Structure formats: C-alpha cells, structure tokens
TrEMBL record:
Positions of the UniProt region annotated as Disordered: 348-380
UniProt keyword annotation of Oxidoreductase present: no
Subcellular location(s) per record: Membrane
Principal localisation: membrane
Keywords for this protein: Membrane, Transmembrane, Transmembrane helix
Biased composition annotated in UniProt, kind: Basic and acidic residues: 348-359
Biased composition (Polar residues): 360-372
Protein name per its UniProtKB record: Major facilitator superfamily (MFS) profile domain-containing protein
Transmembrane segments: 12-42, 62-81, 194-214, 220-239, 251-269, 289-309, 321-339
Cellular component, GO annotation: membrane
Domain named Major facilitator superfamily (MFS) profile: residues: 1-344
PROSITE patterns listed in its UniProt record: MFS (PS50850)
Cross-referenced InterPro entries: MFS_dom, MFS_sugar_transport-like, MFS_trans_sf
Length: 380
C-alpha cells in the first residue's frame, strides 16, 4: 500500500490496512460467541452451576476446533486475492529494473498509458545500488532501523501483556460471572463476549482514530502520545490496583479501555506504518520484516517473561508487572525520537533515493527546503 498510494493519503491508507486487524478482532469475537451460543442451545447446557462444574468436555473440544477452522476461510481468500494483485510499479522498476513491465502494470492500475524510460531508470538504480548490510545503508538508514525495531519490540512487550488484569477487570465490568463455576462452553461464550466489548469500545476506535488523524497530526506525534498515555495509565493501574479493583470499578474499566485505545491510536498502528515509509524500495519489505520480527521478540518477552512472572495471579506481582510495563512504554517514547516524521513527503524523498540528502544527513535548512517537490516526485 505504501508504494501504491500518493504522499497525501499514504499514511491513512497504510493505517487503514492495519486497522482491518481491529475488524478481524471484532469478527473473531462474534464467531466465538455465535458458535458457543449455538452449542449452548443445541446441547441445552445451563449457563452455570453454583455447586459444581458441569462437564461438557467433548462438546467444548469440538467448539474450539470449529472456531479455529473458520480462520482458514479468510486466509484462503487473502491468498487468492494476493495472487491476483500485480507487483508495485516501484518494485518492478527499481528492484527488477524492468521499466517496460512497470509501465504496463501501472497502466493496468491507472488505466492510462505510461511511457517507460529505461535509460533514466538504469541511472536511478545505479545511484542507489547499496546493499542492506553495507556501511552506506547504516549511515543513511541505520538510526531509522534501530528506531523502528526498538519501538516495535517495546510496544509488543506491553501490548501482549495487557491481558494481565483480565481476571479482575472482566468481572468488575460485569462481563463475566464472578465466583461462579462455568462449563467449557459457557466460559468460551462469556470470555468472547468480554473481549468483544473491550475490542468494540477500546481497541477498534483506536485503529480508526489513527486512520482519520494520521495525515493531520503525523505519525511521530501519534506514536509519542500513544506511548506516553499507555505509560501513564499502566502506572496508575499498577500503583492503585487494589483500590481500583475493589472500590472504583468504573475507573478501573475506563483506564483499561483507554490503555487499549491509545495502544492503537498510537504505537500499535504507527510502528506498522513508519517502517513501510522510511526505507528505500529495494529493502523496504526486508526492513519492515526486521521491525516486525523485533515486535514478535517483544511478544515472546511478554509471554515467557512478564506473563510467566504473574502466572499465579498474585496482586503484588501484577502491580509490579504493570509498573515495569509503564517504564517499558516510557522507553518506547524516547526510542521514538530515533525515527522521523514522514507525513507529506514522497517515498523517494524520505529515503534519499531522489538524489536529495537523506533525513539523517541533511541540515535543518535542507529539511525545510526538501518539503518542496519537483515534478518527478510530486505525484508519488
């Protein structure tokens, strides 16, 4: 999407692609709720029993398998549509060096004839023919790569640890029956319902606030605000955990929802957008993949570090973990200064492929004057 979109709408388009994750989360909750409701009706299982746990193990086993298999349908559709999608003109021209094919592909998309200029393309390619592991790459883009990788890593430590308080927050919000034994099907239904409500009112709006405001506020500002607000809310939850859980459940729910909101109207979206814009076409996907891989490393730290530490659900450990996560977000806030704003600039200008100096080596005056586009990059 970053290579298809123009510079005025590129951020919103990339954020919209990522925001479909929020739509997927909503539908995932609906699928689980619908299947578990059907199972409850079919097997005539009561919602709960106060004196014993009801056994519906065979039906519960079938339930989660069916819900999992439903995920194969959108996966197959995605694969089919991606196979039908042409490669971007930027990749075909700059990486493969085939101006004629790039012009043909772009003509299919734009429905107009584009003149292929192989000589100019060869000159352009020769001027930017440095590898990912070269000194020139790290001189021009090394700081950006460290920034995108570290921010995504730190974000995912906190993002995948947000379920630490679920055992207390869902009953506090009245979304799960407290101190009541449930059978497997009831547990799936109530947990799916709780996650659906949180996603609908916390997670989902955050994604689309990013889509609507990213071209007005910029990626960098949204990321800074998101990290800071996540740090603030997690710190408050960690310090006042017993009070919130026992005496102010509404505030507990509000802080929990706002943490999800600012994760998505913040670094969870922008750490996806920025690596798609900061790097040259030749290594854009690779640098994006390295950044995403750093994020999954953060998810592993969350699963085997933070969540393992709080496995028994002790309040003291949850409080400590939330304070640690608050400082993790604060570190992400400061690492965000390793990346730069990309709003309103062409991909070639951002990466320095158009012959201008890159953001890392340009003087402040160059950066100001660089906002003016020549005729070759204006349309990109």
């Amino acid at each position: 999407m970053s290579e298809y979109a123009n510079k005025r709408t590129r951020g919103a388009f990339i954020a919209a692609v990522f925001a479909m994750q929020g739509v997927g989360i909503i539908f995932a909750g609906l699928v689980s709720m619908i299947f578990s409701a059907l199972f409850k009706a079919y097997f005539e299982a009561p919602i709960y029993s106060k004196d014993k746990i009801l056994s519906t193990q065979p039906e519960g086993d079938l339930l989660w398998r069916l819900v999992l298999m439903v995920g194969a349908i959108p996966a197959a559709m995605t694969y089919y549509w991606r196979m039908k999608m042409p490669e971007t003109g930027r990749y075909t021209a700059i990486v493969e060096g085939n101006a004629k094919q790039a012009a043909a592909d772009m003509a299919r998309v734009l429905d107009i004839e584009i003149i292929a200029e192989q000589d100019k393309l060869a000159e352009f390619k020769a001027a930017n023919n440095y590898s990912l592991w070269s000194g020139e790459f790290f001189e021009r883009h090394g700081r950006h790569l460290i920034g995108t990788m570290s921010c995504w890593f730190l974000l995912d430590i906190a993002f995948y640890s947000q379920n630490l308080t679920q055992k207390d927050i869902y009953p506090a919000m009245g979304l799960i029956d407290k101190d009541v034994a449930m059978n497997a099907i009831d547990e799936v239904f109530q947990t799916s319902r709780a996650m659906f409500v949180v996603a609908l009112f916390g997670t989902f709006p955050g994604y689309w606030f990013t889509v609507f405001f990213i071209e007005k506020m910029g990626r960098h500002k949204i990321q800074l605000i998101g990290f800071f607000m996540m740090s603030l809310f997690m710190f408050i939850i960690g310090i006042k955990y017993e009070y919130l859980k026992e005496e102010n459940k509404n505030l507990f729910a509000l802080l929990y929802g706002l943490t999800f909101f600012f994760a998505n109207f913040g670094p969870n979206s922008t750490t996806f957008v920025l690596p798609a814009e900061l790097f040259p076409t030749r290594v854009r996907s690779t640098c994006h993949a390295l950044s995403a891989a750093a994020g999954k490393a953060g998810a592993m730290v969350s699963a085997f570090g933070i969540q393992y530490y709080t496995l028994k659900g002790e309040t003291k450990k949850i409080k400590t973990a939330m304070i640690i996560l608050a400082f993790t977000n604060l570190l992400g806030f400061f690492c965000s200064f390793l990346v730069t704003e990309t709003k309103g600039r062409s991909l070639e200008e951002i990466s320095g492929e158009d012959g201008r100096e890159s953001e890392l080596t340009a003087t402040p005056n160059d950066r100001v004057s660089g906002t003016r586009q020549d005729s070759r990059t204006e349309k990109m």
